[in-house]
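One record is set out below.
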Amino acid sequence: PSDPIARAAYLEANDPIEPFNRGVFGFNRALDNVVIKPVAKTYRDSLPKTLRTSIRNFLNNLRTPIILANNILQGDPKAAQVTIARFMTNTIVGFGGFGDPAGDLGVKFRDEDFGQTMAVWGFGEGPYIMLPVLGPSNPRDAIGLVVDSFLDPFNAWADNTDHTEATLARMGVHGVDLRSRHIKNLDDLEKS
C-alpha cells in the first residue's frame, strides 16, 4: 500500500518468512497428530486430575529461579518477593511444590521469562516465526527461551551431572501437560 498508515499496518502484519513458517507449521501439525496429541490424550485420560495438577505445580515450582531472575532483571522487587514467598510456601507446606497452598491463599502463579524481560527493556518482538515443536513465537521470545535455559539451575545441574535426560523429561512432561489442557480448544479451532 502507498498510504503510510496502511503501509505500516501491512508491514506489521507481514510474515517475511512465510514459506518457512508454513513448512514448520506443517511439520508441527503432523508431529502433533501422530505423537503429541495421542500422548496428551493418554496422559489426560490415564492420570487423575489431582495428579496432573500436582505435576504442573511441581514443574511451576522448578521454574522459580528463572522467574525470580526475570523479576529482578525487570526491576520488579514486589514480584520478586511474591515469587520467593510462593516458592517457600509451596516447597515447605506444599510437599516440595506438588501442592499450591500459596495459590490457595490467593497468591497466584505468575510466569516470567526473558522474552518478557526484553519487552520491559524496550526490545520489539520482531516478525512472526514458527519454531519446530515449540510453535508460534517471535525472535525476542525465541532468544528468551535460550537465555532462560542457561539461567535455569536445574538445567545446569542436569548438564553437570550427566543427567541431560532429566531436562528432556521435564520439557516433555511440561509440553504434554500443556497440550492435554488444550485438546478440546485446539480441536474446535481445527474444525472451524
